[in-house]
Each structure stands twice: as structure tokens, then as C-alpha cells.
Write a structure and sequence with these properties.
Number of helices: 5
Oligomer: single chain
Radius of gyration: 15 Å
Shape: globular
Helix content: over 70%
Strand content: under 5%
Low-confidence stretches: none
Number of strands: 0
Structural class: mainly alpha
Order of helices and strands: HHHHH
């Protein structure tokens, strides 16, 4: 569940990052082009993902600890996106592979 929350948080922040006017944005993938063209829809999608991440953490950790975990997670993911996105170090297949490894290891450890 933590991996799902981190993934939702990443998708939400990355969607908001693609609506920024100050950031150096890329047009490598079709989804990035769509996110940059449809700003209002992107902001609603990002809000949905961020709220979903917060609710997942609140269900797992309770209200106060979940909110604190969300703030820490959002801060960490935001800094990583801002640092690595302009450099084009992390690609889409890397994220899919890393997320799948984390989900499998989370199920092996917690179940």
C-alpha cells in the first residue's frame, strides 16, 4: 500500500509539474503532450491522485501519522522530480520496473 501511495503521489506531482510555465518541460511521450495541453483536466487529475495518496496513508497509519507521512513523501517526491526530470535520467520503463519490484517486495515482506 505504501508503494501505491508513493505512485499516486508521484503521478499527482508529475502532472502538476507538467502544467508549470517555469519548468523546462519535455515532449518525449504522448502523455506529457496531453498533460501540457489540457491544464485544467491535468490539475483535476493531479488533485485526485494527491488526495488518493493522502487517503491511503491515513487508512494505513491513522490521521496524524498518515498526514505527516504524506507531507514527507510529497516533499521527497517533489524534490526528486524537480531534480531528475530536466536531466532525463529516469525514463518511463525505469519507473515501471522499479514500481513492480517495490510492489513485489512489499507483498513478500508484509504478507
Amino acid at each position: 500500500m505504501y508503494t501505491l501511495s508513493a505512485l499516486c503521489c508521484f503521478l499527482g506531482f508529475y502532472s502538476l509539474y507538467n502544467t508549470s510555465k517555469k519548468a523546462s518541460l519535455h515532449r518525449d511521450y504522448q502523455i506529457e503532450i496531453w498533460l501540457q495541453k489540457n491544464k485544467k483536466a491535468t490539475q483535476l487529475i493531479a488533485l485526485f491522485f494527491l488526495i488518493a495518496s493522502l487517503l491511503i496513508l491515513i487508512v494505513i497509519d491513522s490521521y496524524q501519522a498518515g498526514t505527516f507521512s504524506f507531507i514527507v513523501l510529497l516533499t521527497a517526491i517533489a524534490s526528486l522530480v524537480v531534480i531528475f526530470s530536466p536531466l532525463k535520467i529516469v525514463k518511463g520503463p525505469h519507473l515501471v520496473f522499479m514500481t513492480s519490484i517495490l510492489i513485489v517486495s512489499e507483498f513478500l515482506i508484509f504478507n
